[in-house]
Amino acid sequence: MRKNTLLFLIAGIILLLLFPVFLPRFYVYLLSIILLYGLLATSLNIVLGYGGIFQFHHAVFYGVGAYGTALMLTKTAMPAILAFIVGPLVASALGFILGIICIRLSKLYFGMLQISLGSLVWAIVYRWYSFTGGDDGIHGIPIPEMLSSYIGAYYYTLIITAVCIFLIFKIINSPFGSALQGIRDNPVRSEMIGINVKRHQILALTIAGFFAGVAGSLFVVVDNTVFPDMLFWTLSLEILIMCLLGGWFSFMGPMLGAGVIVALRTFVSTYTVYWALVLGVLMIFVIFFLPNGILGYFEERFKKVFMGSEIKE
Amino acid sequence: MLEVVGISKSFDGFKAVNNAHLSVEKGEIVAVIGPNGAGKTTLFNLITGIIKPDSGRVLFNNEDITGLPPYKICRKHISRSFQIVNVFQRLTVFENVQISILSREKKTWNLFSPSKSFVVKETETILENVGLINKKERITAFLSHGDRKVLEIAMALGGSPEFLILDEPTAGMAPEETSHCIELIKTLSKTMGLTILFCEHDMEIVFRIANRIMVMVRGSTVIQGSCNEVRCNEAVQNAYLGGSDVCLM
Amino acid sequence: MIPPGILSQIFVGLSRTTILFIVASGLSLILGVLRIPNVAHGSLYMIGAFTAFTVTKIFGEGQAAFWMALIIAPLFVALISLIAERGMFQFLYEREHLMLLLLTFAFSLVFGDLVKLVWGGEYKSVPVPAIFQGFVPLFGGLPFPIYNIFLLVAGPVVAVLLWLLTNKTKIGKIARAAAVDREMVGAVGINVSWVFAIVFVIGCLLAGLGGVLVAPTVSVTLGMDHNLIIEAFLIVIMGGLGNIWGAMLGALIFGITQSLGILVWPQFGIVFPYLAVVVVLLFRPTGLLKSTW
What we know:
The structure holds three protein chains of three kinds. Chain B is α/β, with parallel strands linked by helices. Chain B is 35% helix and 24% strand. Chain B folds into two domains: 1-77 and 161-177 and 192-243, Rossmann fold (3-Layer(aba) Sandwich); 86-160, no CATH class. In chain B, the strands form two sheets. Chain B has a six-stranded mixed β-sheet with strand order 6-7-8-3-9-10, with helices on both faces. In chain B, β7, α6 (175-190) and β8 (195-199) form a beta-alpha-beta unit. The radius of gyration of chain B is 18 Å and the shape is globular. In chain C, α1 (4-34) packs antiparallel against α10 (244-264), α2 (41-58) runs parallel beside α4 and α2 (41-58) packs across α9. Classes of the chains: A mainly alpha, B alpha/beta, C mainly alpha.
């Protein structure tokens, strides 16, 4: 990694570590939310931007991870640490199963089957009042003392998110990540150089499901609640928007997108109830003028300057 | 080495390949020629597992590989390049070839090591051999068409093949690029001992480098033989070579 | 024989799903010909319902009010969609489906909030038109709402009209050809752009029509768009993309499984149609009937 990037990163981390010291409670909470949504969006980008799979209902894994953790904390007497592990594991298992069922289909039909399976999961959770709390969700989930304060929750979220982002970064830059990107660009070619495309995609989906589940369990820590909307298709589209907004061909793009959306939503909501309108207009603008997202836009400008000199050779 | 016996494939009632035959001996360079739509690419797709035949068999080193999926065929050391350029557009030239080698080494399941450090020497060797070493950091989408076709071949080489299938390797290339490509094919055969099967429209190239030629018309094999046998075959002359007298016998 | 009580329930359920069918058929049309997954379809349905409310208020609660709404609201929705299509969508047909999906989602957000802006957040209600008020004894003497009979008739009527439109008119044939190969159609000199505009508008008009029809039977609220659109999409997917009869079949299956589900297991009644969709897709991933993709 280049020296500048490393310094930038270290400065950023120090800043993030110091935030609770001088920021009021609400902003710390907000930052926690941004971090976990960033992780969620980045997890989607594993299969979307780097894998070329149209994951239309990513929220399912997020919701399942959250509900898994919440249910373990409220319904069982098992230690909390298990709950934080089981949630993401269930989510990744679901990713694996969905992967096996859906991957044999081409892009569009994959998306459709996933939407229908995801909706089924939502419908079950929505109606199973006795177990999942139905449309009320579950509130006041008991969190271990160390993490229950807003500062504790923040640091926990920061650490877990940082570790996960680091892991995802490693995976993207590993031979598996290269193969995945090859599959994204040209699945036929990939098969022809010996890659078992379907198996790699299933693994990618499992990994993406796992990290989405982690994001879900983080939400439980930060907010102490879960609710069926976490599994609803509107959230899935919002996560897609975060990836698109930030730039889905870059690594930090989704995180940036998540930050922009959450911050904007909070900011706009203090002035007006019409946040959806603002988001809609913003999206239309981005789709028309910044098809590669914010980071993509800057990357292209940068490339034109950089490549221009190379093409002259 | 490769034997295709009575292979057929229909698409919605249209017989694209009709009882075709092909044989390639080890170390040979064999060309498949025929008018547009004769079924050459379909034949290649059948051999490499991209589509499954309705009937017939493909034997490689006496092993029946009919209908195996492409990634398994690749593991048998058969590699191929495509007629329509099929590369990884968003990745660099280096990465394109590197992935091919990583796949051969079954390293694509490695999740945590940085891929940058893998098989660098080997990737660069292949790039040097095909003449793309100076452009290794260029994103493939920005390469010229001719360079991309050469990259196709480079990627096929990444699998350390014994048998190389090239689908119209010089299609769309400028003259200098074409002669460079021909030299490359000759080198691959002579110095690397590869058995090569290719198809082309440019007759000059075919007669220059092929040991034997198979002629396909409307999905069937008309004849497979040496250059002269093919040139002097009346049916081929009428269907394909314009009926002129090019026979040297 | 099936007990009359159950039959009655099933048909009430079916009369509600005819509305789903009408909306889904419009969605299927747009998806099949233009290849746009129109997430805003639900919002247009909602706008249709709210517009019906306003129109009936303007014309007093009298007889004519509902019929005026039935004409005006869908046309209003059609107008909005025409503006959206000419103004924005027509420039993006070449883009990836994902982009179009997100664009229509953006529109659904905008429309949703515009509805909130114009009509406010409270429940609205639209009265059942006088001639359809009341019940008739059906199914072993059990009372069956007349309005629901109207709905049960309206559905097939719309289906037949649509079928005539797409199969028997020139425009319909052009649209179907364009669905398969838009370049070819353009190459023979037809203004594909306008064909697409017309198809889009008709599809959206159907959404508005659905909204008007549903208005007397439910409370007209914000959020009706979100619940509807996922069910409409599932029906379209289950029936086969772009296939009107598929949408009808899908709606039928959806309605029956839902009614039966509620009877058999009231708590999880709504889960059954979702389960049905999954089962169908597992065995026929492209949908029950032929799709145009």
